[in-house]
Design brief:
Layout lengths: L1 H21 L3 H21 L3 H10 L15 H7 L4 H9 L13 H20 L11 H7 L11 H10 L4 H13 L9
This protein binds fe (ii) ion (FE2) (2 copies).
One fe (ii) ion binds next to loops.
Length: about 190
């Protein structure tokens, strides 16, 4: 029991250390924190291992800054060497399936990670236009803005819908969960 607790603690600590080592860009870090927080929320809701799900969120773009061409394949050996398990590594590879990897999303962890990726980016981009930031973002306005093709062009709308479909959740409910988790994270939503 005690050793399990220690393992879990070193797990999330290793995740933070890795993130600091590989990612310097503050916006990318914020994106990773966002996905981490939403994953932690869902792990709690589903009774899954919170630190593991949070680590997957935190580390899914670990190699994006240093190895953009081979992302996320370059992250896999780094994660395995750092002691993360196969399921977490498969989820990290799965978030870029099928465009960049040949690892389909089978586990719940993998499906939720994919579902939390693009939408956090879109919510963040949208919040930057609002004077109240994340505190002023509503699921309905997000859904409406998703139809504006000129806005946040690099965020794939189809993947946002596909993500919600894969976890079997109404998109609006998912977006509300994403907004709540991001809003409650002071690293993502610093107090004024
Ligand atoms: Fe990615
Ligand atoms: Fe990402």
């Amino acid at each position: 029991m005690f050793s399990e607790l220690l393992y879990k603690m070193s797990d999330i600590k290793t995740a933070y250390n890795l993130l600091d080592k590989f990612i310097k860009n503050e916006n990318l870090k914020k994106h990773c924190y966002s996905v981490e927080s939403v994953m932690r929320f869902y792990a709690g809701q589903l009774g899954e291992n919170s630190d593991k799900w949070a680590s997957a969120g935190l580390l899914h773009d670990l190699d994006w800054e240093m190895f953009p061409d081979t992302h996320p394949n370059t992250a896999a050996p780094i994660l395995l060497e750092s002691g993360f398990d196969e399921e977490l590594v498969e989820a990290v590879l799965g978030h870029a399936y099928p465009d960049r990897t040949d690892v389909p999303r089978i586990s719940l962890l993998s499906k939720y990670l994919f579902a939390c990726d693009e939408i956090t980016g879109f919510v963040m981009a949208y919040s930057l236009m609002k004077s109240g930031g994340l505190n002023e973002v509503e699921p309905r306005s997000i859904k409406k803005k998703m139809k504006d093709k000129a806005f946040a062009k690099n965020v794939n709308r189809e993947d946002i819908q596909k993500g919600a479909d894969e976890i079997g959740m109404e998109l609006e409910v998912h977006i509300q969960n994403v907004i709540n988790a991001m809003k409650n994270d002071s690293r993502v939503n610093p107090p004024n």
